[in-house]
From TrEMBL, chain A:
Predominant location category: membrane
Name of the featured protein: Branched-chain amino acid ABC transporter permease
Signal peptide: none
InterPro entries according to UniProt: ABC_transp_permease, LivM-like
Subcellular localization(s) per the UniProt record: Cell membrane
Record lineage: Bacteria, Pseudomonadati, Pseudomonadota, Betaproteobacteria, Rhodocyclales
Membrane topology: Multi-pass membrane protein
Organism: Aromatoleum toluolicum
UniProt KW keywords: Cell membrane, Membrane, Transmembrane, Transmembrane helix
Automatic annotation (TrEMBL), chain B:
Matching Gene3D superfamilies: P-loop containing nucleotide triphosphate hydrolases
Keywords: ATP-binding, Cell membrane, Membrane, Nucleotide-binding, Transport
The protein, known as: ATP-binding cassette domain-containing protein
Biased segments, Polar residues type: 269-283
MF term (GO), any: ATP binding
Length: 313, 283
């Protein structure tokens, strides 16, 4: 009764993740997973609540620094570091969310952007972040006695975190709460007229999204041993929009596909194209918006439905 | 204000919704100007008036989607002038909107379930399976049947024809079992058959509840409404049953250019007369 149905893409995805390090460099996959989680968290807001946050880098960055600082300076256990980053991002999400949800549409996006910039400049000036140098040399530590400096050991922790968070997002989308979120996305005044306190639903969704974006940032610090200002920069907020749109906003797997594609492209192109990477990313964005607005997964689903429809009728 | 206060007839049912001196100003423009409205329990009450008379603004004030500038609103004897719109809905006054307001990309059944699930009290539970909502399916299907939509339950709402969307809206509103339903132009933009069906539907769901509706279609107003309030330029111009209102020269004049016959047709012999031509005062 309470089980969420296992779908074959989920099973195939997990199987693929388990064997991936045999063929792919695990750090690259971990990077993809961090960004995939970031994009999924973002998509919970954009795709399922209809809220375009343009400040999600603030949560990624804050958690990255918080976890890094906790592990390096306070020398807390790894798990505690991850939790601190996530909870910190959730708290920041509550503050920014409470202010932003008072506005709608483009004004909502602008408020989130402005507040995220505020966070960025605080992080730039604060002594513990070491400004442009970044917070270097964050130790990975151990988990249940397992040394995480081993890339393969960390890999399976990251996979576990990602799968857990992804499951939570899916569950949220399908939950009674998720139904109301979708209804808000579809027709907000109508939800109000049915007696729901829309602001509270939006705020909870915002905090959830911020917390999971924070988990992504915390995990990222663990993977790379450092946190930088780039994590909190508005470029990062833009990148997550691109990942989500490219993969398919409002689809469950779209952000994962989008994040995998963007991260891999950036990795490959950095060698051949150098600073042209940003131009190429821009071009991809333009093509995506003009040619396939539903994103890769969204277009795939639409195509599949058309095929089914043709067979039936 | 030329509005005639209601005669204190002992046979009148008690009021469910009352406004006193309701005013809404938008930067100097007065959209609603001192409206005293009394909606009585069990009635189907129509709010009519020419374009820009303030009908929809009135609706928005009553359901608290807009804050009144002045005046009071009482619902079931309680002052709701400063209540939040969702709080008003929870007290049993649920509205519909002028343009059809379904959740376009949810299935027809899920549209109704969104309203039904409020009673479960689990709507904040993001960790619960969606299947916990399956217990609502039987009631959802019942409601869909009551508006003739049971065959469309799995269809995505956006694919429904217009008239059916309005029916779905009605089913969603009914899911909350509201004491007072406010319908904003329920037959707007409909063909004749759809109008007849929705009219029948409204009549049917009005049992045990009160309905206040903005309506342009005089056939509907004459056919099913117990009481009519005419608004013009933000104020009450006339009030009474159909015969009284349609004979009022001020009302006829307010619909400028419309001859008495064009607007109201022949004097209806019965409240349920269908001889009245379905002339619409174009909105």
């Amino acid at each position: 009764m309470m089980r969420t149905k296992l779908s074959w893409p989920s099973v195939a995805g997990v199987a693929l993740l388990l064997v991936a390090p045999a063929v792919v460099y695990p750090v690259l996959v971990m990077k993809v997973l961090c960004f995939a989680l970031f994009a999924c968290a973002f998509n919970l807001l954009l795709g399922f609540t209809g809220l375009l946050s343009f400040g999600h880098a603030a949560f990624l960055g804050t958690a990255a620094y918080l976890t890094g600082h906790a592990l390096k300076v306070w020398e807390v256990p790894t798990l505690v570091g991850l939790i601190l980053g996530t909870v910190g991002a959730a708290a920041l999400g509550w503050v920014i969310g409470s202010l932003a949800i008072r506005r709608q549409g483009i004004y909502f996006a602008m408020v989130t952007l402005a507040l995220a910039q505020l966070v960025f400049f605080v992080l730039m000036q604060a002594p513990f972040t070491h400004g442009d140098d970044g917070l270097q040399g964050v130790p990975r530590g151990t988990l249940f006695g397992i040394d995480l400096t081993n890339d393969y050991a960390l890999y399976y922790l990251v996979v576990a975190l990602f799968v857990g968070a992804f499951w939570l997002i899916r569950r949220t989308i399908d939950s009674p709460f998720g139904q109301i979120l979708k209804a808000i996305r579809e027709n907000e005044p109508r939800v109000v007229s049915l007696g729901y306190d829309v602001a509270r639903y939006k705020l909870i969704a915002f905090v959830l999204s911020a917390a999971l974006a924070g988990l992504a940032g915390a995990t990222k610090t663990l993977v790379f041993n450092f946190a930088t200002l780039g994590d909190a920069h508005w470029h990062m907020s833009g990148e997550v929009v691109l990942m989500t749109l490219l993969g398919g906003m409002g689809t469950v797997f779209g952000p994962v596909v989008g994040a995998a594609l963007i991260v891999t492209l950036q990795n490959e192109l950095a060698v051949v194209a150098g600073s042209l990477v940003t131009v190429i990313m821009g071009a991809i964005f333009v093509v995506c918006v003009l040619a396939f607005r539903r994103g890769i997964v969204g277009e795939g689903i639409a195509l599949y439905r058309r095929m089914i429809g043709e067979k039936v009728g | 204000m030329q509005g005639q206060p209601l005669p204190g007839d002992a046979h009148d049912p008690p009021p469910i919704l009352e406004t006193r001196g309701l005013v809404k100003e938008f930067r100097g423009f007065i959209a609603v100007n001192g409206v005293d409205l009394t909606v009585r329990r069990g009635h189907i009450h129509a709010l009519i008036g020419p374009n820009g008379a303030g009908k929809t603004t009135c609706f928005n004030l009553l359901t608290k989607f807009l804050e009144p500038t002045r005046g009071t609103i009482r619902f079931k004897g309680e002052d709701i002038t400063r209540a939040a719109p969702q709080a008003v809905a929870r007290r049993g006054m649920v509205r519909s909107f002028q343009i059809s307001s379904v959740f376009p990309h949810l299935s027809v059944r899920d549209n109704v379930r969104v309203a039904l699930q409020r009673e479960l009290g689990t709507s904040f539970h993001f960790w619960k399976s969606g299947r916990t909502l399956d217990s609502l399916d039987a009631r959802a299907m019942e409601l869909l049947e009551s508006v003739g939509l049971e065959k469309f339950a799995t269809m995505v709402a956006v694919e429904l024809p217009y008239g059916r969307k309005r029916a779905l809206e009605l089913a969603t509103t009914l899911a909350l079992d509201p004491e007072l339903m406010l319908l904003d132009e329920p037959t707007q933009g409909m063909g004749h058959e759809d109008v007849d069906r929705v009219m029948e539907l409204i009549k049917q769901v009005s049992a045990n509840r009160t309905i206040l509706m903005v309506e342009h279609n005089m056939k509907v107003v004459a056919g099913i409404c117990d009481r009519i309030t005419v608004l013009a330029r933000g104020a009450v111009l006339a009030e009474g049953d159909y015969a009284t209102v349609s004979a009022n020269p001020a009302v006829i004049e307010a619909y400028m250019g419309a001859e008495s016959e064009d607007l109201f047709g022949e004097e209806p012999t019965q409240a349920t007369s269908t001889r009245v031509p379905a002339t619409e005062v174009v909105s």
